[in-house]
From TrEMBL:
It comes from Herpetotheres cachinnans (Laughing falcon). GO terms for cellular component: cytoplasmic ribonucleoprotein granule; nucleus. The keyword Cell membrane does not apply. The lineage of its organism: Eukaryota, Metazoa, Chordata, Craniata, Vertebrata. This is ZC12D ribonuclease. Residues 251-276 form the C3H1-type domain.
Length: 309
C-alpha cells in the first residue's frame, strides 16, 4: 500500500521526500484525498513529468487542471529573464507625464519613473515619444515640471520628439499617437499608455488588434509607477508573461471532484479524481468493467454479440 501510494503521487509530479513525510505523519492507510490535501498544505508543487526518474508510457492528464487551450498561447521559457526575452517598450510620454501631474502639470518626473521601472526589469529597448513643442519654455496655460529630465533622456537616446512647427504664429503639431502605435507595431512591442487610441483602431484593422492585445495601462501610487498584474484581465497572462516574448506556462490548479467516488460523468468529468490512479480516460461502462476485473475486450465482444441478436 505504501509503495503504491508513493508511485501514484510520484507520477503526479510530487517529490519523494514530501510524499514520504506526509505518509509518515498520516499513516500508510490514509486516503489519497487526505495525502493530496496535506501535500498542498505543505506547499509542495508538482514538478515536470519529464524530470521523473521513471517516465510513464502514458501521458498523465489530471482532471480538474486548468484549461490548456487558453494557457497554450503563453509558451514555456527556460526561466532566465534576459533582455532577449523582453518585448520593446514604447511609452506615450504626454499621457504618462500628464497622469503623474494629475492632468494639470506636465510632470517629466513621471516619465523618468516609468523608464526606471522598465530598466530595472531588464528591458533594453525603451522609447518615449513627446511632442517637440514641450522643449519650449513652460507657459501659464501649459506648465511643465522637471523639464531638464527630457534633455537627459534625449541624450540617452530614449526620448524622441515628434515634429511640430509654427506657421504664421500658429503651432502645427504632428499626431504623436500615430508615431507611438506605428513604432510599437513594427517592433512587436508594448504600448504604455492609458489612452485607448480609438481613432487609430478604426483607421487600421491590424492596429486595432495590436492595441487591444499590447496596451499596458498603469497607475501612479505615491510617486510609484504601477502597471496591473493582469493587463488583459483575470483570464489573460500575468504581467511578466505579457512583457515577455517567451512567457512561462502557468502551473495547473488541482481541483478535486466534489462528487468524489460517486461521480458518474466518467471521461466527461472536468475535475481531478485521486481514486483513479492512472487517470485513464475511460467511459463509465469501462470503469465498471475494470472494477469487477472483466477484460475490456471481453466486454466489447459481449456488446457485439448483443447487437447481432
Amino acid at each position: 500500500v505504501y509503495q503504491s501510494k508513493l508511485d501514484f503521487f510520484c507520477k503526479l509530479g510530487y517529490g519523494k521526500q514530501d510524499i514520504c513525510k506526509v505518509l509518515e505523519n498520516l499513516g500508510q492507510e490514509a486516503l489519497e484525498d487526505d495525502v493530496l490535501k496535506e501535500l498542498i498544505r505543505m506547499g509542495s508543487k508538482p514538478q515536470a513529468l519529464e524530470s521523473q526518474a521513471q517516465p510513464s508510457p502514458l501521458k498523465l492528464v489530471a482532471r480538474g487542471s486548468c484549461s490548456t487551450t487558453a494557457g497554450s498561447k503563453w509558451l514555456a521559457e527556460d526561466g532566465s529573464d534576459s533582455s532577449g526575452y523582453l518585448r520593446p517598450i514604447v511609452i506615450d510620454g504626454s499621457n504618462v507625464a500628464m497622469s503623474h501631474g494629475n492632468k494639470e502639470v506636465f510632470s517629466c518626473w513621471g516619465i523618468q519613473l516609468a523608464v526606471d521601472w522598465f530598466r530595472e526589469r531588464g528591458h533594453t529597448y525603451i522609447k518615449v515619444f513627446v511632442p517637440l513643442w514641450r522643449k519650449e519654455p513652460p507657459r501659464q496655460d501649459s506648465p511643465i515640471a522637471d523639464q531638464h529630465i527630457l534633455e537627459e533622456l534625449e541624450k540617452q537616446s530614449i526620448l524622441v520628439y515628434t515634429p511640430s512647427r509654427k506657421v504664421k504664429g500658429k503651432r502645427v503639431i504632428c499626431y504623436d499617437d500615430r508615431y507611438i502605435v506605428k513604432v510599437a507595431y513594427e517592433k512587436d512591442g508594448i504600448i504604455v499608455s492609458n489612452d485607448h487610441y480609438r481613432d487609430l483602431q478604426n483607421e487600421n484593422p491590424e492596429w486595432k488588434w495590436f492595441i487591444e492585445q499590447r496596451l499596458l495601462m498603469y497607475s501612479f501610487v505615491s510617486n510609484r509607477f504601477m502597471p496591473p498584474d493582469d493587463p488583459l484581465g483575470r483570464h489573460g497572462p500575468t504581467l511578466n508573461n505579457f512583457l515577455s516574448k517567451k512567457p512561462v506556462l502557468p502551473e495547473p490548479k488541482w481541483q478535486p471532484c466534489p462528487y468524489g467516488k460517486k461521480c458518474t460523468y466518467g471521461n466527461k468529468c472536468k475535475f481531478y479524481h485521486p481514486e483513479r490512479p492512472h487517470q485513464v480516460q475511460l467511459s463509465v461502462a469501462d470503469e465498471l468493467r475494470a472494477k469487477i476485473k472483466v477484460p475490456l475486450s471481453l466486454g466489447k465482444e459481449e456488446e457485439k454479440h448483443n447487437h447481432s441478436l
